[in-house]
Amino acid sequence: MKSFVDTNILVYAYDHSAGVKHERALELIKNLWMAGNGILSTQVVQEFYVNVRRKARRPISIGEARALVADYLSWDPIINDGSAILDAIDAEQRYQLSFWDALIVVAAQKGGASVIYSEDFNHGQTFDTVEILNPFEGRG
Length: 140
Description:
By secondary structure, the chain is of the alpha/beta class.
């Protein structure tokens, strides 16, 4: 079962100030590394880099950020080509999503994911064969 990881989950995995969210995101990412079934898109890798460098409470160094990006590139990110952009425009209308969220859904579908881990969608929401799971939902 392939699992798509949204930017926010990756960022929490490296944001030590995020408390419980950091712990849960890090555990999820470690499990996906071990199982070898994590996927993401070029959009997620780009957003991750910008967020851990410029928007995090404690930004990481450019060298560390570059090394992390290189590691995640080994997941063979889904490339948002022209076809994906057009599909996202259609998904934006079909699912009533923002364009950027539609691009996430399209990339997950293109990559054969059955799950998108994110806190930016509604937990349990489905888009055809892809289900949204918020790893922070329903835990005390």
